[in-house]
Design goal:
single chain; about 525 residues; alpha+beta; Dna Ligase, domain 1; five-stranded parallel sheet; about 35% helix; about 25% strand; disordered C terminus
């Protein structure tokens, strides 16, 4: 096992990797941009190196700076997390050239599977069902793209070949929308992943987004850990994930797992990866893409299979073989749900919300996990995505997991910035979600966020508590209280105000104004 690794990422995923490293006795090196200099992943590391200003293109995406930081601090390996350089084959090659282990797939496997265009081509040759599309598309060749679009048929998707997280995807309903969608998709992909390559793909509707977690070692062993349901999406961005899926039977799970393992084997894949599929109502599935990295939603798989995927990543990267598990596919135990907690206003078209986090109260209790970068006093930067944390629960059954998630969401308090906690609370009580009757388009077509409650009698009490706390902070109350550290009473008043806001949908002024 490694003695020291560098984590080429930030936020909750950097902290997630650090926790496993501490359990294994592995030292960690953090890298940080100027806005992240006081972040938790910096505080918790054994060493930390500044890598540049706030823009990712000048810090977290600069390969040379990150590799130099690893060399200076004696890191034997680099864990890329997800996003940023995690699926960059050139970065994996650069690490290898200087004798640093890249904790992920090889550059060759990344070229074959991490790039969505080459992955489609490889798996189509291997006989895996592929969504009809066109791979070789020049973003500036509108004439050729228009011909291909007519062949594929509308509606279709313009998608970025590199990266993930829903970036670079545009839905095209008609020929007149194609040119603008291509340019926008390519531009976003170039900005986010330094690669503007795009392709076209038929839009299958209705469909579920089902993905299979796998891990492969250097000794020819591939292990799959069932499926995750990721169909609750807005603007192609996943918001809620669960394992297993209500739509996947044991027979379908076996077929999905076999296809995912074949994909990994055909590319000589190693380390953790996720094969994503679109599945129709008849259980037919089509390869969508492969994410050559750890996924944001990996904790739900860890819960239902009782594993630590980061620990397996480190072991495989260090050359160890996966333990022999026999020929039988592992069966999921219980049910797990993850809600992504984003800094955004669900009552105002989910506009991003940044600024000072004044108070955080994480949820506790059995089967409850909160992976987060939050702490009291964090100034959420504007340079990165809106993910603040991930709330994950486990229970024996899906109804119990839904009930536990609702309890945990009500217990979670974040004061100072707007969050999508009210959205999740409304979603989890929707009859379609409770029945599992969802698809990738369900959220945007069937779910409506209710208006802010205006007549809740408890709102007046919460407003009074919020105003009182604000006065104390501004120094208008007792001088001895205002001039010292924030007291428990002040924190309690703020938490009470925001807790009622979370439950009832009121007090937007408190979280957006007074609290920030």
């Amino acid at each position: 096992m490694f003695k020291r690794i560098l984590i080429a990422n930030r936020g909750e995923i950097a902290l997630r990797v650090q926790r496993t490293c501490r359990e294994l006795g592995v030292e960690t090196v953090a890298v940080y941009s100027d806005p992240d200099r006081n972040a938790l992943h910096v505080r918790n590391a054994d060493a930390a190196v500044r890598i540049g200003p706030g823009l990712a293109t000048e810090s977290y995406l600069v390969m040379e700076t990150i590799i130099e930081a690893a060399k200076q601090t004696g890191a034997e390996a680099i864990h890329p997390g997800y996003g940023f350089l995690s699926e960059n084959a050139a970065f994996a090659t650069a690490c290898e050239e200087v004798g640093i282990v890249f904790i992920g797939p090889s550059a060759d496997a990344m070229h074959a599977l991490g790039d969505k265009v080459s992955a489609r081509e490889l798996l189509e040759r291997a006989g895996v069902p592929i969504v009809p599309g066109a791979n070789d598309i020049d973003a500036n060749d509108i004439a050729t793209a228009s011909c291909e679009a007519e062949r594929i048929g509308f509606p279709l998707l313009v998608k970025a070949s590199a990266g993930g997280g829903g970036r670079g995807i545009r839905l095209v309903e008609s020929a007149g929308e194609l040119e603008e969608a291509m340019r926008a998709s390519s531009s976003e992909a170039q900005t986010s992943f330094a690669d503007g390559t795009i392709f076209l793909e038929r839009y299958i509707e209705p469909a579920r987004h089902i993905e299979v977690q796998l891990i492969a070692d250097n000794h020819g062993n591939v292990r799959t850990y069932g499926e995750r349901e990721c169909s609750v999406q807005r603007r192609h961005q996943k918001l809620v994930e669960e394992a297993p899926s209500v739509a996947v039977t044991p027979k379908i799970r076996a077929r999905l797992s076999q296809a995912a393992a074949a994909a990994a084997t055909s590319a000589g894949y190693r380390n953790a990866g996720t094969v994503e599929f679109l599945m129709d109502s008849d259980g037919n599935f089509y390869f969508l893409e492969m994410n050559a990295r750890l996924q944001v939603e990996h904790p739900v798989t860890e819960f239902v299979y009782g594993i630590d995927l980061v620990a397996q990543q480190l072991a495989v990267a260090a050359g160890e073989a996966l333990p022999d598990a026999g020929d039988e596919l592992p069966e999921p135990h219980g049910w797990s749900i993850e809600c992504r907690i984003n800094g955004e206003d669900p009552y105002d078209n989910f506009v991003p919300s940044f600024g000072l986090v004044e108070y955080v109260q994480p949820p506790l209790g059995p089967g409850t996990r909160f992976d987060s970068m939050l702490f009291d006093g964090l100034d959420v930067p504007v340079f990165y995505d809106s993910l603040l944390g991930k709330l994950i629960v486990w229970a024996e059954t899906r109804p119990d997991a839904v009930a536990r998630m609702r309890r945990a969401l009500n217990d979670l308090v974040i004061a100072g910035v707007q969050t999508n906690i009210p959205f999740h609370l409304e979603l989890l009580k929707h009859e379609d979600f409770i029945a599992g009757a969802i698809s990738t388009s369900w959220l945007e077509s069937e779910f409506t966020m209710p208006a802010v409650a205006e007549d809740d009698p408890r709102e007046r009490e919460a407003l009074i508590a919020a105003a009182l706390a604000a006065e104390l902070v501004r120094g208008n109350g007792d001088a001895s209280v205002a001039s010292g550290p924030v007291s428990g009473w002040q924190r309690g008043a703020r938490a009470s105000a925001v807790h009622l806001r979370t439950r009832n949908g009121g007090l937007r002024g408190w979280q957006r104004g007074i609290g920030s």
